[in-house]
Design goal:
single chain
């Protein structure tokens, strides 16, 4: 499962996985926005991937609607 890769010891694997979560939001409008945000937001505290996390969160907020349609 991809969530395990977010904790991978290799920084490159973690970073690419975060980017892929953002790409998922771009490619799959039915992805669960709240679920993806709940997975990524805690990772903002990890300096080594925080920039990529911010980019992925931007993608999620841009391409996915809230369950209420917003």
């Amino acid at each position: 499962e991809y969530t395990e890769l977010l904790e991978h010891p290799d920084l490159q694997v973690r970073g690419v996985t975060v980017s892929c979560v953002g790409h998922l939001a771009r490619l799959n409008e039915k992805a669960d926005k709240e679920q993806l945000l709940s997975i990524l937001e805690p990772m903002l505290q990890k300096q080594d991937v925080a920039g990529r996390v911010e980019d992925a969160i931007d993608d999620i907020n841009t391409f996915l609607r809230d369950k209420g349609g917003h």
